[in-house]
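Lecture 7 notes: from sequence to structure.

We start with a single chain of 112 residues. Read the sequence below before looking at the structure.
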Amino acid sequence: MEIYVTKWALTRGVFRVDAEPAPGDGQTMCFRLVYDEMGNVFSLPMYAHPGEWFTDEQAALARAEEMRQREIRRLEEELRLMRGMEIEVVHAKAARFDGHSRAQVRDELLNA
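Now the structure, written as tokens:
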């Protein structure tokens, strides 16, 4: 059965592969990707769970677009936080390790 896998839509694209249901729930699909990079050819079994694969190309592309829009919103929020961030100079006092665990020394430095 041919399916469209959206698992890597934002990094590699939507994959069109031949797949078969994996043993178990009947909703997870099993397929193989063959890589030919650096002269090596090998095959790895891969799995796509419900919501990561579609039988219709348009449905897969619509899902990929949803993923893209969600990632854009996440990155815009991260940019907003970074732009509003104030960077402080933290004055850390010298710490000695004699008898202290690394966690204690870390806490001492961070709470200086």
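The longest strand covers residues 29-37. Keep this in mind for problem set 3.
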